[in-house]
Amino acid sequence: MKKIVFAALAVFLTTAIASQAQAAKTLRLTLQLPMTHHLGQNVQDFKEEVEAATNGEIRIEIYPSAQLYKDKEVPQAVSSGAVEMGVASLTRFAGTIPAVDLFYVPFMFSDSGKVRQATAPGSPIRGPLDAAMLKTGARPLWWQAFGGAILLSNGAPIKRPEDMKGKKVRVFGKTLGEFVKATGGAPTMMSGSKQFLAYQRGTVDAGMTGLTTIPSRKLYQVMDHVTLTNHADIEFIVLINEKVWQGLTADQRRIMTKAGRRVEKQLRDKMDRIEADALAFARTKMTVVELTDDDRAAWRKATASVVDTYIANAGLLGKQLVEAARKLK
């Protein structure tokens, strides 16, 4: 009798273990930034919540610092199923959805309150963009706040639009390139992971990025001035392959949606402090250039035509989003 009981128990345990192994799903997530950056910490929080809430049925492996794919490759990699999940700058969809560059139209969003309204789930701006991205086969799970765009330079400050004339400037979006052209500079499209070497070697004279990359990518070692233009809002998107998403159970999808919304709000709520900390760090390593009202008015005037270029490129959806953005209060 004991032998029968032990045999039955062994079969039960073997079946249970096999069933658990079969049920577990591993989702690889590609990230271009280091885990020390706030985007890395944000996806780590998501990973921990999902793995705990699903009792290990879903495991998420994070590959930071562009180990798997560069930023520009992520949307295609996720939509094709080459990788299950990925984090990419919103502008990386501009090739198929030009309207995503609304956030790079100069000074379209004048304060963080308008950014919050525009990026809220289901808003008249985010809703159509999420729907358009989903059609590519990559489902947006949540948006990640990255902060405002600033300018880096070496040897001399960039304070007025005329200071850009003749300079080669690193950009990470087509509309940001139009910003540079409008001020007399020459834009150079470049992934974030390539910035350090480009600045170090003098491949470009100046660059656009976010404040938080100064400490995380150690850009203070190769650039000595930072100008607080805050002329654009930088957003990243966490994506999951749509077929992979549909292959999850309803409960797993609910858990992942809930976790995504939580970490999105958590990060958005912390952005002012995160940028303040990054700025405080930059002040200890670099010369920080702050704009006067007159300086900012000059930048606005010099780049006013970019909105028309954006609408021409983005078509009806772009026009619709600009109208929605102008209604924000």
Explain this structure to me?
By secondary structure, the chain is of the alpha/beta class. The chain has a single domain (2-326), classed as 3-Layer(aba) Sandwich (D-Maltodextrin-Binding Protein, domain 2). Helix content is 47%, strand content 19%. Strands 1, 2, 3, 4, 5, 6, 7, 8, 9 and 10 form a ten-stranded mixed beta sheet that branches. α2 (38-53) runs antiparallel to α10. The protein is globular, with a radius of gyration of 22 Å. It starts with a helix and ends with a helix.
Q: What is the tally of helical segments?
A: 12
CATH superfamily: Bacterial extracellular solute-binding protein, family 7
Envelope shape: globular
Here the CATH topology equals: D-Maltodextrin-Binding Protein, domain 2
Q: Domain count, please report it.
A: 1
Q: Termini separation (Å)?
A: 77 Å
Task: Average the pLDDT over all residues and give the rounded result.
Answer: 93
Total count of strands: 10
